Prior knowledge:
Layout: H1 6-9, H2 14-26, H3 32-39, H4 43-54, H5 73-86, H6 91-100, H7 107-118, H8 142-150
Helix pairs in contact: 2-3, 3-4, 5-6, 5-7, 6-7
Amino acid sequence: xxxxxxxxxxxxxxxxxxxxxxxxxxxxxxxxxxxxxxxxxxxxxxxxxxxxxxxxxxxxxxxxxxxxxxxxxxxxxxxxxxxxxxxxxxxxxxxxxxxxxxxxxxxxxxxxxxxxxxxxxxxxxxxxxxxxxxxxxxxxxxxxxxxxxxxxxxx
Length: 155
């Protein structure tokens, strides 16, 4: 064997170990007991994985999720947003106008663009700590309050 073969013969991750075990079972045509010994499975587990694979219930490789391929929408509409704002349109009017022109954009996206333009050096908006209500003042009895109002607090 060549150097580096241990990556395949002694897989470290569980997904790779499962793949290599099934590969040995199906491609190398090894008996389930030998595969189980080599990859630290029980014979029943090898049979179960093989059955799941045949029925299409076992995913050996994760599928990548498609994401945005280019710049975000905000970069594409920035100039149009600024032009409409220069004509004194509101945030909701700008969002509606762009949507009507075939570029659906939310009012929040417009707001963020305008906010970034107004203060280009600012980072993301700060998260303010939650405000707690003022501590409750100790309640005094009604009699003590009346006496305090009459100037007879010590009586």
